[in-house]
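User: Sequence for phenylalanine--tRNA ligase below. Tokens please.
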Amino acid sequence: EPERCVLLLGEGNFSFAASLCGAAGTRVVATCYESEEEVSVRGWAAENIRRLREGGAEVLFSVDCAKLSDYFLPEKREFDCIYFNFPHCGRKAGVVKNRELLAHFFHSSAEVLAEEGEVHVALCNGQGGTPADQPQREWHNSWQIVAVAAGAGFILSNVHPFKAETFHGYKCTGYRSQDKSFCVEGALNHIFTRSTPLPHFKPMSCEIELGSQKVSFQVPQVLVDKINRGFLELNSNHPVQTIKEKLTAELRQAFPLQDTNHCLSLLHQGHLSGVCPSNVFWIMLSPEETPSTEGHVDLCRARDKNGQVSAQEGCCVSKQCYLRPSLLPYAQAIIQRGAFLPGTLHVLSGPVFRRCLVSPYSMPIFHELVFGCAVNRGAENSCIQMLVNSIQSSIHSLQQTVSSSKLNINLQEATSFEVSELNEFAAFEYHFSKIQYFICMETDSSSSCEKHFCVGTIRTAHDELVNSEMVAVFASVNLDLLAMLICGISDWRMLWTPDSRFLCQFPRGQLKLFKSFSLYPPSYVHDVSFWVPDGEELDEVAFHTIARQVSGETVVSIQLIDTFQQSETRRKSLCYRLTFQSCDRALSCRQAAEMQLLFRREINQRLRVTLR
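Assistant: Structure tokens for phenylalanine--tRNA ligase:
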């Protein structure tokens, strides 16, 4: 194995460095801020320095942790691990000064750390400001270490107690810049790693078959990094593919199965019944329809004031297209045209797209698994029960291999719910396809605020078949939501992370309880107030979609916190609170502030609100 190179900063008496020296396969570079003359008079320092040098370690003095690249040649700037134990500006420096020290240190470390290296920072109890501190200090009175590190592109990937007794001969020193020890009881070691950078999206076009023609369209910006990811390909080890395989394998034992995923267009055309137009991603054929090649036409989006396609702009409604919000119409088409064998279960799967409000479980894109079959009239209830039993069995089997927390699965009639009680996925399905049953899951997981979830739907249709003696049965399952509940993933965005540390937790065909590689990510709160145009209501879905777009999906919460109406003019003012937080990448205070400014500009231009 290649030699592991370790850099130690801010050594007081070099006792920590001496405890690491001599470890097999490790090269130690130990440094301190003071000169050798100043350090050598400290207790045991001279002896530790001698031991280090005899053991082959490199010892450097007068090293400023904020300028590390000045001390190492480019070919020696690939440290696998950087340790900085109990950093402090000295004397009675307050939290602000020490935050500045950490900020300079992290930026400097980024220049000399290997790509997959780690930065270890030990802090006294309470200083870090994370929930790992017991008791936890108020944020403003802490060193805010996760936010400071995020400014240099680092995320907190692990935190554990700093156990001084495990380092033979280690003696802490430096209390108020003196040769005195200090209390390290309850101290924590914070381990940081590099984050993948925040996305900077470029316009993206997608070419597909629509009917008999090839068409291209501009992908909505919020979907640019999510379209064509191939999570459901045969060689994929993504959890949604594993769950799909397990579900279909279980159903294959009860039904003859036929996979019909080929030629499922991303776009739909024509009438969309039962769905609010603001909940779909509209795309419209260019009025010119000028072919760029034989059999090829261009698609473009014509936006109204809310950034959505308007049918009143002189465009033929038949030219309107939208990204498919469901695979159910494809299953219906198969059954309607009689291209089936009675009792055969047709299986369709793929990503679907829905504009929705921001929340941890509201997904603008997710993978849907749809089953459709035709059975003799009177046999539909037994067919439904077989479907539900198979789904229950496969989910229980998956869940038992992952966690001890319990998932209860049951079938509930749609009429037993008020629409306001449904989650966003269920509410859309309810309006879209006349649902009769919801497949519901109840979790006892402490990591989730929500406990009840609709993960699927079932409906029957008596009037969609040529043969009046047959009944169509359709079932739909949200694979992404299932993956989150089974694997303990608390935020849908994690399913789409480009960070390899997500997929490496799921070997091919296996599910495990997910362990986050970004702990206690910092959050930043910004408020925005504005006047709504006279006589108009704010399109909240458009408002949330703009927030998704400008933030690269780092807005995790949007709350209406105040409304006001002038008595004389009847003008209406709204105040919203946006919380910015990334579940997988470093997000700095400055970046969140820039996103907020961009959001203000965009809502002013696209929603015609007047900012206050």
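The longest helix spans residues 380-402.
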